[in-house]
Amino acid sequence: MANNEFVDIKSRKTGGKSKGGLIAAIIVIVIAALVVVFSAGAVVPAGSTGVMVTLGSVSENTYSEGFHLKIPFVQTLEIVSNKIQVYETDASAVSKDLQTVNSKIAVNFRVRSDASASIYKNIGADYQQVILMPAVQESMKAISAKYTAEQLITERNQVGQEIKEQLESKVSDYGIQIEKFNIVNFDFSAEFNNAIEQKQVAEQNLLKTKTEQEEQLVIADADAQKKVKAANAEAEAIKAKAEAQAEANKVLTESLSDQLLKYQMLEKWDGSVPKVASSASPLITMGLDDIEGKAE
Questions:
Q1: What are the beta bridge partners of residue 66?
Q2: Which of 161-170, 240-249, 279-288 is modeled with the greatest confidence?
Q3: Which of 158, 67, 81, 66 is nearest to 119 (CA)?
């Protein structure tokens, strides 16, 4: 009886171990299946392109945004961003007048989706340093050499546009598209900065002097116009007075007659007759000489 009980206990232990191993195996299989299932798909995020790599071989075809199937453990779907990226760097160049120009620039660029596979295959993920950086430096040097240091400042927009065009011609064949090129800052030597500052001060002083001179001319012109108006007004007044006097004289002259003149002379005559008569004596013309003869 004891032997039978021992055999029964042993068989129960063996059966328990078998069931535990079976459960573990099932769990492993499920996990492996899940891994296989998840490895059979890949998602390309928005603004990106998928490049399929099969055992190290890069496919020429690209995959757009969304979910895609692939062979587990054999294929991988590499993601290449096609969003606008910003590349900032410092650049050094020499101007036309041999001034050293240190500038900080920012380039907005993106990888074209149709060139994603080519860039991943031929350049890799470090395309900014491999392609963009040397192209930016070379373009900066080439365009800066066409302008003087002062022109680089005063014609900054034009300089930036020319650099952008030159940069585009260098990187477009690789599938990199330049969206915007910005010159954040120009920096020159201390001597040149002092010279520019002195020039600006001189120009401001000249402008101030010119403005003051123009103001003085305006004031002088206003005074001259005022004097001219006053002189014209005075002349008009004198003219009006002369015309009024002339009109009065005319009226007075027209109102005088020989009888009136004789009457006024007689009114003022004191009765004495001049001893000397001449043609200038009014007594002759008024007949007073006859009066004098009769009196004698």
A1: 44
A2: 161-170
A3: 81
Q: How does pLDDT run across 213-222, given as a tens digit for each residue?
A: 888 888 888 8
Q: Write out the two tokens for 67.
A: 């979910």
| Percent of the chain as helix, strand, coil, to the nearest 5 | 60, 20, 20
Bridge-based pairing of strands 41-44 and 100-111 is unpaired
Distance CA 58, CA 118 (A): 9
Structure tokens at 119: 């860039």
One-letter identity of residue 153:
I
pLDDT, tens only, 99-150? 889 999 999 999 999 999 999 999 988 899 999 999 999 999 999 999 998 8
pLDDT top residue among 10 and 150: 150
Structure tokens at 263: 């009457």
Q: What would the two tokens of residue 145 be? A: 């050499």
**Overall pTM surpassing 0.70 (yes/no):** no
- What residues does 43 pair with on adjacent strands? 67
The 10s digit of each residue's pLDDT in 182-199 is 998 888 877 776 777 777
Count CA atoms within 13 Å of residue 146 on its CB side. 11
Q: Which CATH class is domain 82-188?
A: alpha beta
Distances (CA, A) of 225 to 219, 220, 230, 231, 237: 10, 9, 9, 10, 18
CATH 3.30.479.30 domain locations along the chain = 82-188
Estimate the crossing angle of helix 156-171 against helix 133-144, to 10 degrees: 140
